[in-house]
Amino acid sequence: MIIVLNKPFRVLCQFTDSKDRSTLADYVPVPDVYPAGRLDFDTEGLVVLTDDGALQSRISSPRFGMEKSYWAQVEGMPDEAALEELRKGVLVAGRLTRPARVARIGPPEDLWLRTPPVRYRKSVPDSWLSITLKEGRNRQVRRMTAAVGFPVLRLIRYRIGPWTVSGLAPGEWREASTPADRTTV
Predict the structure, then answer these.
(1) Strands 126-133 and 68-75, bridge-based pairing
(2) What are the catalytic residues?
(3) pLDDT for 108-125, tens place per residue?
């Protein structure tokens, strides 16, 4: 079984919590599925859950190189030099990140409102980036953009391999199919 969930902001990417915070259990009432990879508490968007351990590993392990794509609203307006640094890889926690696909984009279409909303400052512009990675280190997108001087204000994962968050409001989920060629997953 494969489930795709649009994880809301400030929800733990696990099914239990000793501190009584919101978890996946508040949204997905399906037993015996587990997230393939994680999203930070303060990151929104796509989480793929499955009951297939081998598939879970292929999705989450960087050695398989499954692409994960994000929309990042950043403080400031990154110039081409900053984007090129992100594309080539930046030093994060003492290690160079793998090359990434990075592009400036307009605000994503059909973007849901976040609760609470992002705090805007009239004196500081913001912009959106599309960032696609083949690895997934802890808080990687946030650390990458900060390393080139453009901290993240809002982060949304919109795609993992063949699955997207398209059509799902925050907290909504649906069953998804396994791609026909499992070697690509």
Answers:
(1) antiparallel
(2) 40
(3) 988 999 888 887 777 788
